[in-house]
User: Fold these one by one.
Assistant:
Number 1:
Amino acid sequence: WQTDGVALNEIAVLYFDADHGRQLTDHLRTLNIPCRWMASANSKRAYDPSKNEVSILPVPSSKGLEFHAVIILGVGHPARRDQSESDVARLLYVGMTRAREKLLLTTSTPSPFADRLHELATSKVP
């Protein structure tokens, strides 16, 4: 996306599992890609759109923010085992609607949400 002209401060990576956020932050830093991991519940206070860095934050903390491009890690997987499917769906909706232009969804294990999204993406519209 950066080669297409998208500035780093217009890219966000949203996660459900804090360990994913930490691992991604560590990896981007080893690649010398400027990023800010906003792991706390008060993440929005740490967000600074004037800094040219990728924002990495939990899906719930992204509510109210918008980015040109958004990546969501672990689609359909609850952050806590006690989360209902409707809670996960609501959070996924929040995360997906943070993207103004580009959205990339990832998952590493099967989930009803990932399966349904794949089905919708590959179906032919009449």
Number 2:
Amino acid sequence: MKKIISLSIVFLLIVSCGKDLPMSTFDTYGPIAEEQAFLFSIIFWAGMVVLVAVEAAIIYIYFKYRRRKNSNRKAAQFHGNTKLEILWTILPVVFLAVVSVPVLSAIWNFGTMPENPAVVVNVKGHQYWFEFEYPDLDVVTANELHIPVGKQVLINLDSNNVLHSFWIPKIAGKTDIIPNQGNQMWIQADHTGLYYGQCAEFCGESHALMRFKVIVDTDEDFATWIDHQKTEAYVPNDPLEKEGYTIFMSAKAGCGGCHMINGSKKAKGKIGPNLTHVGSRQHLASGIMENTQDNLRQWIKDPGKIKPGNIMASQGAVYMDPNKALTDSEVIALASYLQSLK
């Protein structure tokens, strides 16, 4: 049984290091991730050299000086060897000094923010979602970060609740978000595509569900996305969507008290994500569900079941007061309206 458990652990360790996994740090797509992977390789192989050398010395000594059968000879007693002691003091110092060169270089590179970044993004960690503000572009969105390919992006990190950590494994390593203190990092993605991100600091019961996506666009696609994000929200014409709009803006549902919809006089909330173009996002609930009509209905109906501890479920009037609970038809209408916000 112990052998089976040991082999299972070894197997899990091996498969967890595959480059094809969506959050593998070995499959790099940016200079920061590449340097971090290179640094890991140096430290890993340096450690392996030390491990092999020490283990080889132990095995050699074990066989060389083991007690022979039928031998009454007493083992020789040694009380020090000056040359050996100097050697095994100097060698590790030299070894660490050599390894420290790329380490210090990487630390300096990671910590030196670009003077003229192509894009600046203010990232705020909430429980349990990320807010993305582009201060120079007048855009605010949530959980899906768009950046242009091959450009340096400055990330300003902050939180007004608990510790979080911003992590995009294939583009850059994790950086802690400290409440009301601020922190910075910079990223660059050298290939277009979709990349996965995750909060990497335990922040509550739905910490594992605090995910986000990074969409790396061409310059043209990024400019188009920014222009679209600046537009006001779609005004529905369909009867079902109109009904959902009325519910969203009503005092009973109270959605506008927590969510912002650009162009609306009633939806000015900043507690929850900006929903101006929520229908155009690929995922819901901080990256854990595809943005489909069915998933959106499930989320509206019972967000606490999908993501325990989230503020929407614990503070929303329609979830706390049975008399204000949404009917199935109201959920359908509300989901239709939100899906229309492309």
Number 3:
Amino acid sequence: SARDIDAMAQIWTCTSDDINIAPPMRPVIRIGWDNIKANYLSFWKTLSELSVTMEAPEIRVNGDTAWLHGVEIARRRLRDGSTEGSHNAGTSIFVRRGGRWRLIFHQATALA
């Protein structure tokens, strides 16, 4: 929500294995941290505010892999002052590397 690329780099594995399927409407598959990072930076320029929350994530852990899913509530204020939002089915997969959990996959799909 802070639109902070350095904070995002602390969450993702920042490797060529990373996959992000978004935005929720007409999603595009982006593979590799460089592509994901470029997309974030481009998308965030269109916004003056962003809020994404997941109130009740379902979390599972199996060894060094964990995944969560739930309904994301996204709210956006565009640079022109208009607002929009969506409820999205969100899924994230994490891997444990060096004792830290890092995001390697995220998908958000708009719910009707």
